[in-house]
Amino acid sequence: MIDEPFLAVARGGTATHTPVWFMRQAGRALPEYRRLRGEGSINDAIADPDITTEVTLQPVRRYGVDAAILFSDIMTPLHAMGVGVDIVAGIGPVVADPITTRSDLARLRPYEPDVDAPYVGQAVRQLVAELDVPLIGFAGAPFTVASYLVEGRPSRNHTRTKALMHTDPALWFELCDRLADIAIATLRSQVSLGAGAVQLFDSWAGALSPSDYRRFALPASTRVLGALADTGVPRFHFGVGTGELLAAMATAGVEVMGVDWRTPLDIARERIESGLGRGIVLQGNLDPTIVTAGWEPTREAAVEVLAANAGHPGHIFNLGHGVLPETDPGVLTELVTFVHEQTRR
Amino acid sequence: MIDEPFLAVARGGTATHTPVWFMRQAGRALPEYRRLRGEGSINDAIADPDITTEVTLQPVRRYGVDAAILFSDIMTPLHAMGVGVDIVAGIGPVVADPITTRSDLARLRPYEPDVDAPYVGQAVRQLVAELDVPLIGFAGAPFTVASYLVEGRPSRNHTRTKALMHTDPALWFELCDRLADIAIATLRSQVSLGAGAVQLFDSWAGALSPSDYRRFALPASTRVLGALADTGVPRFHFGVGTGELLAAMATAGVEVMGVDWRTPLDIARERIESGLGRGIVLQGNLDPTIVTAGWEPTREAAVEVLAANAGHPGHIFNLGHGVLPETDPGVLTELVTFVHEQTRR
Predict the structure, then answer these.
(1) Does the structure's ipTM exceed the value 0.90?
(2) Looking at CA atoms only, how far is residue B326 from chain A in angstroms?
(3) Which one of A23, A181, A259, B223 is at 20 to 30 Å from A289 when CA atoms are compared?
């Protein structure tokens, strides 16, 4: 994989074309995924290394993307540890007994990937052997995982989570500390088995004011990403609605900042680089909803993304959030080809 | 109401203290509201001028805020016109037959406030007679109202709406045009009966990329706000998650830009003023979720909001979104007193 575009660009180098992959590229938009998965539980699928391997490979074959991302979930380690979290179709992660007091923290013991979820490691091994593009490993950032654990399910306002951080910061930070340890164990295990990059998903960080983000979320994420520094793999950091947080998120120890569709790449780059005092590689940021409108709107939006990037070599093309289930996969195939052609150097 | 602080500041002048009001200040956080409303339909309550008057007055009495906002809903005109929209508790606006084709537009005939919803005008008249603070009228911006009509209910991704705008822009613009006419009729009627200011709620505009916002949402909102220019009342414009849209939204013809809690006021002011080339009055922006955590976190957050505003006289204090139902009204009372004291000139 010498001169392979995805890692070359992620490391701040150049490539023959802008690499492309899609968050949630493995998923319900693909008929071959729906056939394989049927109506079964996503946790059961993740627990089967052969299904995980096949589902991770499907979008690479279909779309010709420049990277694979492990088929998994940010709640997988907690599920594997028996914390009592399920992924309910149409809802998302549901926690049987949400965390409300200090005694609940005992359930968040250290995560041992080889013992708790050996099937994940097995899938990573199989994938690294089969793939001819890099495999991205990932974990959930402490804030976002904590929100699921405290709210008990996906939340619009994160009311309980914000109340906890503001009224019992000691408990909040201990919770985040344990979740940081779990994320570190998750990511280090994936990298040790051959994942070529890692992405920390802080999906709901955008619900926080910049001040709350810096105080209550950034420290634990910084610890997670810092603990990956010695591995040498590029570290990606992403959340939705994070326009005002990008500069802070980029200080956590990242090589690539993911940007959602709300912030044009030129603005994102200026904001991050003026905060960091150095260059940054950006990932994004076509509105995933536009893709559901068909090829012509998608093409126009891709042209806009590339125009905002203005030919900067530090760009990994992606959507601004995950592929929506109602997406026509044919449009994504066209999109990969289009971006490759438009950026051929 | 000479030298009354709310309108003085909204018009770009100064006042003896920073005025305060809260979006959704009339609502479920107040026990007197819950007692009066019981389990009845919100549309029935809005259709009763005495209930509307009482519910609008309750937060003025309780909190000592500097402005009242008419108890109503952005979907009220459409409900009154028989478009078939209901406000379902726990969900929000639900449209029986969502708009999908050109023939559906016929249902969006011109709105005649005196004929279609005389009870609203009656409530405005009663309120103006009783209030000793200004009454804010409001309407929904065409994009946000269109999203409800197209999706049929509150939507996270606005998939159908974005697909419609991108695949049939002619139909989209005609839909927005009709909704702009309805918003204009709504606001002009409220002002003619004595409302002292108007706010255009484009609650979901933040779902759009800046490019989509400028192309598909801004023109109709500009027409609405422009049609209020000759009335001389200050025009407020607000949406959630609009950090990247503030500069564009401010060009629509506004005296006051509302800011959600994600964008600190100093950053918002700089972004808007550099786009407009003139000063702007800002409204906001304490995270409404923080208020549910109690007084001390609320006080800290209020100090941060005031610090970000840095003593600028062009500031109307508000939350960054509506009061949440689980809010302790005592905390909001303390907040009004605190902001008044901290900003006394």
Answers:
(1) yes
(2) 9
(3) B223
